[in-house]
Design goal:
3 strands; alpha+beta; 3-stranded antiparallel sheet; 67 residues; 36% strand; elongated; 1 helix
Length: 67
């Protein structure tokens, strides 16, 4: 990530397997902003985590909570 805007923030990440896909939820504890994404069960946990963090960063930027 560019200069890692989430580096100094606590983010909770949860994985929920549902059939052939995995639901991933990520929450920023400072702002209580939560997002969720879905991915194939065959995707690695690292890829799903990275995509969830990117989505959370996008939402926080859109809300003006981070630069």
């Amino acid at each position: 990530m560019k200069d890692a805007p989430l580096r100094d923030r606590e983010v909770i990440i949860e994985f929920f397997p549902v059939g052939n896909y995995v639901r991933v939820a990520a929450m920023d504890t400072k702002t209580l902003t939560e997002i969720s994404i879905q991915g194939p069960k065959s995707a690695s946990e690292e890829i799903l985590k990275r995509n969830a963090l990117r989505r959370l960063e996008y939402v926080l930027r859109k809300k003006g909570l981070i630069e």
